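BUG: 3D viewer hangs when loading the predicted structure for this chain

Environment: internal workstation, default settings.
Expected: structure renders.
Actual: progress bar stalls at 90%.

Input used:
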Amino acid sequence: MAGLRDVAMQSTAWPFEEARALLKRYEKAPPEKGYVLFETGYGPSGLPHIGTFGEVSRTTMIRRAFEVISDIPTRLICFSDDVDGMRKIPDNVPQPEMLREHLQRPLTSVPDPFGLYPSFGDHNNAMLRRFLDTFGFQYEFISATEFYRSGRFDDTLRLAVERYDAIMAIMLASLREERQQTYSCFLPIHPVTGRVVYVPMKQVNAKDHTITFDDEDGKEWTLPVTGGHVKLQWKPDFGARWAALGVDFEMYGKDHSTNTPIYDGICEVLGGRKPNHFSYELFLDEFGQKISKSKGNGLTIDEWLTYAATESLSYFMYLKPKTAKRMHFDVIPKAVDEYHQQLRAYADQDAAHRVNNPVFHIHGHDVPASNMVVSFAMLLNLASVAGAEDKDVLWAFIRRYAPGADPATHADLDAAAGYAVRYYNDKVKPTKVYRLPDAKERAAMEDLLARLKAWTGGADAEELQGMVFAVGKEHGFEPLRDWFKALYEVLLGASDGPRFGGFVALYGVSESIALIERGLAGGMLPPV
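Structure tokens produced before the viewer hung:
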């Protein structure tokens, strides 16, 4: 462990950089509470999206890195702000009209439109926990409803009343003048309607720890701030939660980063120590728009797991967290293949290189071997030309290409074959557009066809690739990428594809001959 700790202290991997910064927090003395607390927050206003998973995944990577360089125990809390009032109806849930009559009620007071749980908040919390459990995260879940109603938050809420003016000074400095006139850090939950009420305070009583306000009908109410009668506005809630729990680390998206001084200031006003932060770039959908829980745009966790294993998603989350990334279906094949490339590299790396390898941060000390003797991209193209409806079709080619491979011994390859067939039929097949070659391309393909018919080199992928490369050069394709693009468009119906020599080796020389003959004859084109 000492040797690993030494190299980890020099690692340039971002989880170790964040872990080292966190360790400095306690360089003089260990935490009085006995552990370092990581937190992730979740707003259950809609079904959990993939960005929520990313936050927990990345926080877990930093937590693992911290545990390599320190003996201080750690905890991870996933906190759901389910007392938040439902401000709008999500686009991707049933019974929107039923939900409409519950607007502004806390999410755990809104009926579940799916009819499965006591409330909409409980439903979304359950979905979050199911998703996180799928990946084996070690975390503790806290519901804000339970946090407010059970009394766990009461001491901090009383302190918020006593230091109301200091909290309001922080908040008012960040608001426009018009908003300043009506703002309060406290949001009462109306005793009759059950709705979260956005009204100014008539009185904040530091002695009795109560607030007094007029509701929309002009009726005056006085409520205790404890026991779940009142919640904090979301920005004060952020900082108050840090103070109440003693949070040491929390990451959040770039859209929160301008609020960091507010969160920190309120945490300190309430007697806490501001945590370390990490601001990551946002996930975007196929159109470059921010992924939203309420819109349901972008990929969901379930959608990713329909077409690839969990580890590929974890790998995607590891990459460049401070760079905005598109989260669309077309990122999945690349993530799968790069993940397995890193697994293969890890097997031969020394400790100094291993701690910089993404798979170390995905798996910790238990990094598996890769049995992907055929890439996911190649499996997709094989599914295309073979017209595969199930993975058994692909295995007929895989066994011939790699005689030692078998579903029983190559579980990751077997799973990938199933994912590839599903991905091809759902996402690739509907978009394929074939074309005929032009005169130059036809001459080159006829030359390639002749050479394949005379081929005696067996299924050697590198030699076949060299032969395909030579044909393109001899027929004057410049850049050479245009030659391969023509092969893909004529034979595979796409502008991108695998190393063609490797594809021929996998699919078979005689089968590739038949494929080229069919392409030259226009057999790929739809009937007129």
